[in-house]
Amino acid sequence: MRRRAKFVIQGDGSILSSIAKELKGKLDQVDESLLKIGRLDVDSYEDREGYPELLELISKHNLQHTFFEGREYTKKEMETAEYYQVFVPYPWLHDPEKKAKYYGTTYESQSICECGETQTSELKLDSKKIGKWQFATIDPEFIVTDSAKDIMLNNDLSGVTFQQARDFKYRESPPISQLIVLHILPPTNNNVKVVPYTWENKCPNCIQLGFLRSELIYEREKLKDAKDFNLTYEYFDAYVNRILIVSAKTRSVLTKHKIRVHGYEPISII
Ligand SMILES: [Zn+2]
Fold first, then answer.
1. Fewer CB within 10 Å of terminal CB in the chain, N or C?
2. Quick one: 63 and 98 in the same domain?
């Protein structure tokens, strides 16, 4: 796997200019076009010789920056992994208020936090929004078409169950089911990188880690009871949800039957 970092660094133009001069040729792309507004953009593989120096200079000058990491896997790494993080399509992504609750799905709460909520109605959603997807998420639930459900059931995938879901206006739609993941993994390894949330999590019952900035990492023994469908123990990212992790078997069944998702990333097992 090869890591590629994207930095937007902000600070005094002359400091940024000296950094750019120092690192040119030692990183893949150093973009000085916004220096006059105090911004330097770097996009580079992390294995380049200038990368450790870049980190040192950012820290030495205490420069404000944002960091995103892309990870590129070889075909062999993609095909031989045992577990994968799944990037499940979210057709409501641009409508953050339109969660399962918005469409009338009800929950009973046993704590101060959404982690303590138990779903008390069938899942309701705007079925017209699912579009071409056979597997999608509506925060915080997963949905599948009934044909995708049948494929999953016929292949005996473990750690998952299904219940009927419905259009919120009871309109005719292709049959859809809620996919319920039954297995929650133990906590991830401490080397998983996150940008922590800015709020303090006052809930004693869950761990809200923040915005994921690395691959997910588990010690091997933590995966000994893993199923074909699993969720992380921790909550991540903008929607503060558990992340779906599937086995190689699940990925292969979904791929073979053209049940598409946005992508998979191998879980790092140490
Ligand atoms: Zn909680």
1. C
2. no
